[in-house]
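pasting for the record
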Amino acid sequence: MKKLIFVGALLCASVAGICQPFWNCTNPGQLLPDGWDCRVYYECDQALNPVKHYCSAGLYWNCVEQTCDVREKVNSACPCTMVRF
């Protein structure tokens, strides 16, 4: 049973690392792409911690415009667009 709990904790820790943005927060209010899910972006809070946000249905994070946008307008240079839509 202890091994099962340990494996579960390791799995949760490794998944949590995947879900973080590519960059560290350097300024409050800074917006960062998820890097894995194009529907997700992060906003840096006053303590420089990334806070996860989701775009509305059918919209994706546009790194250039710094807003959620339709797929056709999302810049292919953004890290999140390399992985999946």
